[in-house]
Prior knowledge:
Blueprint: E1 5-10, H1 18-26, E2 29-36, E3 39-46, H2 47-55, E4 64-68, E5 71-82, E6 89-96, E7 103-112, H3 116-119, E8 123-126, E9 130-135, E10 143-147, E11 156-158, E12 169-171, E13 177-182, H4 185-208
Parallel strand pairs: 1-4, 2-6, 7-10
Antiparallel strand pairs: 1-3, 2-3, 4-5, 5-6, 7-9, 8-13, 9-12, 11-13
Amino acid sequence: xxxxxxxxxxxxxxxxxxxxxxxxxxxxxxxxxxxxxxxxxxxxxxxxxxxxxxxxxxxxxxxxxxxxxxxxxxxxxxxxxxxxxxxxxxxxxxxxxxxxxxxxxxxxxxxxxxxxxxxxxxxxxxxxxxxxxxxxxxxxxxxxxxxxxxxxxxxxxxxxxxxxxxxxxxxxxxxxxxxxxxxxxxxxxxxxxxxxxxxxxxxxxxxxx
Length: 209
């Protein structure tokens, strides 16, 4: 994804609370916090522009360029709060990143291609769709794409096999399965029937002797 720029307007501590925040939303603005290096900067962003950015498909680990007045930095979306009944954005927390300093975030896992095993009747399953990682902003990717074309029946891809930068620290217990092709009930039933047929023929030959 190409770099996305968010232009924000600083707001003073007096412009906080239910009343001021309600007035901001009426004006088509969203109250935000930009958190980083032990500080929190209060600002607002245009609601329509922010909705377009979110709808464009940004992920939890997507790095964005942000201007708050004259201050420029790289950020990612830490949390989006919405009103439960309307879905309207209530508030957004952004996290400011520091070059060379590792951050902890969630990265999406996507697959490409059609598994070989699914073409022969197997059931393809994409089990793990995101992982938590620790990485520097320079090495961070918001999506890991896994090619599953050569995945045959009974094959699987585990977290340890993901194509990720060596500098990443993957925060997860064990080595869970990301994607697999399993035998369907029909395939198992067919194999069982074929085995029973073969065993029956063997038994018949023995009795004939």
